[in-house]
């Protein structure tokens, strides 16, 4: 058997679990904290592959192996790599308390409604987008993806709880800081986990299902679910296909450019994405914010006209929805296409705008497709009868970035 022992945020490893081990593998601080059995080989974890190869040698000789890990080794830990290499049936896992559970316990908050995201050895942008979209997030950090980098990328209303050296009675620290304060400090290498909180919503409601919130019951909501002006809103039939092509999900960043009422922005946020809505009309900005509040989601609203306003957006989006029109539409589409990592969707009422918008997408290396949408809705007539009421036709184009054209884009 390979005995995997979680330690570091709770009681030290039980000496009885180490007795008779021929090989003990773990981080240097874990190994230094225990007394190894006489004659046991010690392997300090660095690169994982060589350590697993050494474990394989001992397993092949049917010699007992102990692996020491932090907290719960089955939670973003070494259990996955060991199970993939040797099979779950060969593992005897003795979990400790995870750093996430410990950090939330230290500040007295439940965490069954928290989203946990790892930035250790991964792209920081996913963690940033999750923190922007959700009110309670735990981020497992790593070199180059710590509290300072996280704070520099987050809006000022977020509070970061930085938990360092959890479980160490002498070195443990749990500090609440603003995003700006986090960005201004050197936190060293002892950070265990960072909690990102919207404190107004941090307690949360009672949940039945833990972790990542499920998809909303409905999407492509009717127009009367949003405040809008003079029917200037993306109709739900168009919105349904636009959402399908945008594919918003937790960890994504979506731009809604020419957002109008913000119906697409709000729907993307309801599906888990971080969202920036760009709108040039001052009254439109107010409506977007009101609609986001009404649906209980976060939408970052930028007051400005595209394409100029896009230059001030620091983070490249995964997907972009472009609404509205006007002579500047080709320039707006081209500006969005230069920065979109995955897809751009464009909605147009005017036939004359379609060729230029398509050319802007294909010129940026996107594979482009589209459809004319025209629907007829049931409408009541006097005498308890029904007619079909046609909606205005809308062209929907979408461009998908191809692997060849995405050279230079960090994916």
Polypeptide structure, described:
The chain is an alpha/beta fold. Helices cover 27% and strands 26% of the residues. The chain contains 13 helices and 19 strands. It has helices at 15-18, 28-32, 48-60, 79-86, 99-106, 124-133, 147-153, 179-183, 236-246, 263-270, 282-294, 329-339, 354-363; strands spanning 2-7, 23-26, 41-44, 65-70, 91-94, 115-118, 136-140, 159-164, 173-178, 191-197, 253-257, 274-279, 300-303, 319-322, 343-348, 366-373, 376-381, 385-390, 394-401. The strands form four sheets. Strands 13-12-11-14-15-19-16 form a seven-stranded mixed sheet, with helices on both faces. It has a five-stranded parallel sheet with strand order 3-2-4-1-5. Strands 6-7-10-8-9 form a five-stranded mixed sheet, with helices on both faces. Strand 2, helix 2 (28-32) and strand 3 (41-44) form a beta-alpha-beta unit. Helix 12 (329-339) packs parallel to helix 13 (354-363). The model is unreliable at 404-411 (pLDDT under 50).
Poorly predicted regions: 404-411
Q: Structural class given helices, strands, pairing?
A: alpha/beta
| Residues in helix, % | 25-40%
Rounded Rg: 26 Å
The fraction of residues in strands falls at 25-35%
The shape is: elongated
Strands of the biggest beta sheet: in what spatial order? 13-12-11-14-15-19-16
Mean pLDDT: 92
Distance between the termini: 39 Å
The major beta sheet can be summarized as: 7 strands, mixed
Q: What is the tally of beta strands?
A: 19
Counted by DSSP, the helix tally is: 13
């Amino acid at each position: 058997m390979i005995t995997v022992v979680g330690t570091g945020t709770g009681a030290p490893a039980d000496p009885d679990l180490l007795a008779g081990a021929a090989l003990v593998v773990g981080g240097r601080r874990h190994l230094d904290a225990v007394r190894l059995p006489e004659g046991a080989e010690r392997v300090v974890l660095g690169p994982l592959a060589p350590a697993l190869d050494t474990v394989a040698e001992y397993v092949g000789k049917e010699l007992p192996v102990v692996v020491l890990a932090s907290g719960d080794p089955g939670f973003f830990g070494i259990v996955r790599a060991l199970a993939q290499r040797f099979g779950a049936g060969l593992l005897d896992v003795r979990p400790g308390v995870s750093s996430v559970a410990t950090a939330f316990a230290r500040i007295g908050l439940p965490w069954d409604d928290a989203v946990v995201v790892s930035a250790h050895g991964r792209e920081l942008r996913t963690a940033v987008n999750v923190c922007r979209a959700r009110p309670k997030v735990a981020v497992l950090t790593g070199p180059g993806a710590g509290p300072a980098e996280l704070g520099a990328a987050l809006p000022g209303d977020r509070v970061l709880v930085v938990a360092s050296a959890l479980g160490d009675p002498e070195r443990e620290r749990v500090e609440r800081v603003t995003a700006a304060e986090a960005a201004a400090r050197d936190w060293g290498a002892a950070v265990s986990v960072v909690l990102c909180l919207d404190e107004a919503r941090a307690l949360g409601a009672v949940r039945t299902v833990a972790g990542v919130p499920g998809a909303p019951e409905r999407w492509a909501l009717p127009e009367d679910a949003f405040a809008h002006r003079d029917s200037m809103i993306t109709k739900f039939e168009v919105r349904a296909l636009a959402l399908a092509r945008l594919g918003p999900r937790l960890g994504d960043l979506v731009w809604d450019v020419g957002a109008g009422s913000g119906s697409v922005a709000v729907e993307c946020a309801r599906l888990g994405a971080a969202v920036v809505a760009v709108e040039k009309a001052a009254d439109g900005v107010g409506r977007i914010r009101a609609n986001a509040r009404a649906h209980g989601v976060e939408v970052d609203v930028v007051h400005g006209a595209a394409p100029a306003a896009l230059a001030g957006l620091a983070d490249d989006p995964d997907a972009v929805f472009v609404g509205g029109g006007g002579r500047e539409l080709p320039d707006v589409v081209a500006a969005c296409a230069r920065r979109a990592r995955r897809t751009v969707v464009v909605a147009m009422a005017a036939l004359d705008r379609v060729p230029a918008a398509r050319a802007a997408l294909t010129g940026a290396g996107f594979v482009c497709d589209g459809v004319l949408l025209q629907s007829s809705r049931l409408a009541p007539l006097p005498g308890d009868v029904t007619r079909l009421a046609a909606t205005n036709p809308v062209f929907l184009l979408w461009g998908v970035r191809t692997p060849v054209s995405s050279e230079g884009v960090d994916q």
